[in-house]
Amino acid sequence: MNRAVALLEPAPAGCGPALPAAGAPRPLRRAIYETVRAGGRVSRAEVAKALDVSPASVTALTSDLIAAGHLLETEGPAPAPARRGRPPVALAVRPGAARVAGLRMSDESWSAVALDMGGAVLGEARRAAPPGRMDADTVEEAAAALLADLGRAARVGPEGFASVGVGLPGMVDHPGGAVAWSPLLLRRDLPLADLLGRRLGAPVLLENDAQAATLAELWFGAGRFAADFAVVTIENGLGMGLVAGNRLTRGGGGLGLELGHTKVQLDGALCRCGRRGCLEAYVADYALAREAETALVGGSRAGAVGADLLDRLHAEAKAGHPAAASIFRRAGRYMALALSNVALLFDPAKIILSGERMRYDQLHSDEVIEEMRRLLIDSGRPPPPVEIHAWGGSVWARGAAALALQHVTEAATG
Ligand SMILES: [Zn+2]
């Protein structure tokens, strides 16, 4: 393996995109706040230089932000030993100005994380997912229970969260606050942001879960300093997010990019969206599990299920079980097809593969990457590098929490 396998590190200082979003002018007050947040501890002079504005205008607006309780003055980084004197005064985000929550819903477990305004994790919570497809009442009930757990873990009282971001699989209309379709939900076009907002007592922002994972990269991970990159996620489904010009791409309808439901085979395998031949019907957990049952237990339903079944399939494939190995080999070839299509369509500077299923290394082996390269047009330039982030835990929820941080920031800075 010549590609780095990295875990998402907590940002040493600051959070949020370090580069301004292209084509999205922002009020100077917000630009100042976001520059300070991205840098962690930043002097007024550095802010003025970064934004190419006069120090006087920065001084006036920072006084205003300090008075309103959004920024504070702190000690800057210590001067070099050769230089004497007191450390310079720096600005920092006031972490306790508000607290936000991020929830991630999936069909196995739900996770939640509480952040302060500086992006520090205050607490985490996790619950098993409600079984089967849910009606609106079940979603509200489960979300309220998880948020109550989170409040206890983070020592945040009832209604103490200024905003809640929610990531879930499916076609999520971010600006409209509705879920057009999700494998978790019984109903189509559910106005989930309003329903949850009333129940949880805070504004709720929705996002597709792969988009939330992409936001986690952009706010807290390898994407903070990157302008253009794609994130491909494998969990129970196959998702994708794209950052172009330092901002998350959402389609015209706010639905984002549904890589998992692009068609790779006419009249192919049945997908959980109800159509045939979708990419995820060949790569996602349920696709592998469908074949694993046949390969390992002769078609009977006895034995392991879900993640246990896949772990067993993975171990058998590693040990040379021919049918088990062929299942991963085929899934890996479809993965190569997916990655080459992403590279051809979007020309990203890099592709980040993320999600818990990255521990099945056959899905991103050197052979898979080599096959991806063979499927690309030989332009004479190197194909985009592929990085693996085998995240677990609360990272997807942190991406959802970034939505809430953004929402609170916009409200606070005009
Ligand atoms: Zn589909």
Overview of the molecule:
- The strands form four sheets. Strands 1-15-14-11-12-13 form a six-stranded mixed beta sheet, sandwiched between helices.
- The protein has helices at residues 28-39, 44-51, 55-67, 136-154, 192-200, 209-220, 280-283, 285-297, 306-318, 322-346, 366-375, 395-413, and strands at 5-6, 71-75, 89-93, 99-104, 109-116, 121-128, 163-168, 171-173, 178-181, 204-208, 229-234, 238-244, 247-248, 351-354, 386-389.
- 38% of the residues lie in helices and 18% in strands.
- Helix 2 crosses helix 3 (55-67) and helix 9 packs across helix 10.
- With 414 residues, the chain is α/β, with parallel strands linked by helices.
- The protein is globular, with a radius of gyration of 23 Å.
- It contains twelve helices and 15 strands.
- The protein folds into three domains: 5-96, Orthogonal Bundle (Arc Repressor Mutant, subunit A); 98-216 and 394-413, ATPase, nucleotide binding domain (Nucleotidyltransferase, domain 5), CATH 3.30.420; 226-389, Nucleotidyltransferase, domain 5, CATH 3.30.420.
- The protein binds zinc ion (ZN).
- It holds the Pfam family ROK.
- Belongs to the ROK (NagC/XylR) family.
